[in-house]
Amino acid sequence: MKANVKRRVLCYLLDVMIVISIGFLLSVFLPKSNEYLQTKQEIGILSENYLNHEISFSEYFLSYSSLVRELDKGNMLYLWVCFGIMVLYFIIVPLFLGGRTFGMWCGKLIVQNKGSFQNIVDIVLIRSSVSYGVLYFLFELMLIFLISGELYFILLTILAILQILVVICSLFMIKYRDDKRSLADILSHSNILIES
Predict the structure, then answer these.
(1) Where are the alpha helices (DSSP H) in 30-148?
(2) CA-CA-CA-CA torsion for 39, 42, 46, 49, nearest 10 degrees?
C-alpha cells in the first residue's frame, strides 16, 4: 500500500529532529574558534545598535549579510561535522536499511524501485539530495570558499528558499497525486510503500 502524506511527514520530521538533536549536542562539545566568537559578538553589537535605532535596517542588513560568511567560516569544524552527520544519516545508513532512513524504518515505510535505477546507491543519493538538503549543505560549504560578503548571504538565502520550496512541493505532490509520489520519488524512480 502507498504511504500517505501524514505517515511520510511524521517519518521525515523524526529524521530531521534526530539530525538536529545530534548537531545541537555536538555544538555544545565542539570547540569554537576565536574568529567565530568575535564575529558572533560583532553580530550581537550590530543587533543591539539596530534595536536601539542607532542604525537603519538597510545598514543592519548590509553589515549582517557581510558577517554571516565570516561566522560560517569561523564555524567550519562544526559545519563539516554536521555535513558528515547528514551524509552518514541520510546516505550511509539507508544503504544498510534498503534505502530507508531511520525515521522511515520506524514508520514501517519501504522504498520500492520503480524504474531504471538498479542500484540502491543511486536512489539514496537522489532522495537525500532532494528531500533532506544534503546538496544544499554541500553548496553552502563550497560557497564559503568561493564567494564573500553580501553575495554569499543572498545566494545562501536563495538556496535555502529553494530547498524549502522543494519540500513543500513534494508534500503537495504526495497529497494530491494519484500515485502519491514526491519529487524525490519521481527523480529516483522509486515509490514509498507501507511495509506489509
Answers:
(1) 34-51, 57-74, 76-87, 93-96, 102-106, 120-131, 134-146
(2) 170
- The Cα angle at residue 67 between residues 64 and 69, in degrees rounded to 5: 125
- Torsion sign over Cα 120, 126, 131, 134: positive
CA distance 158 to 146: 16
- Looking only at the bridges linking them, the beta strands covering 109-113 and 190-194 are antiparallel
* pTM of this structure: 0.82
Taking phi first (over 0 means left), then psi (-120 to 50 degrees means alpha), and beta for anything else, what does residue 112 get? beta
pLDDT confidence of 111, banded at 50, 70, 90?
confident
Which residues neighbour 139 within 8 Å (Cβ) at sequence distance 6 or greater?
A: 159
The residues, any chain, with a CB within 8 Å of residue 167's CB and separated by 6 or more, are 131
| Cα dihedral 157→5→13→112 (10° resolution) | -100
Element (H, E) at 111: strand 109-113
Tell me the mean pLDDT in the region 83-102. Answer: 91
Please give the Cα distance from 114 to 100 (Å, whole number): 15
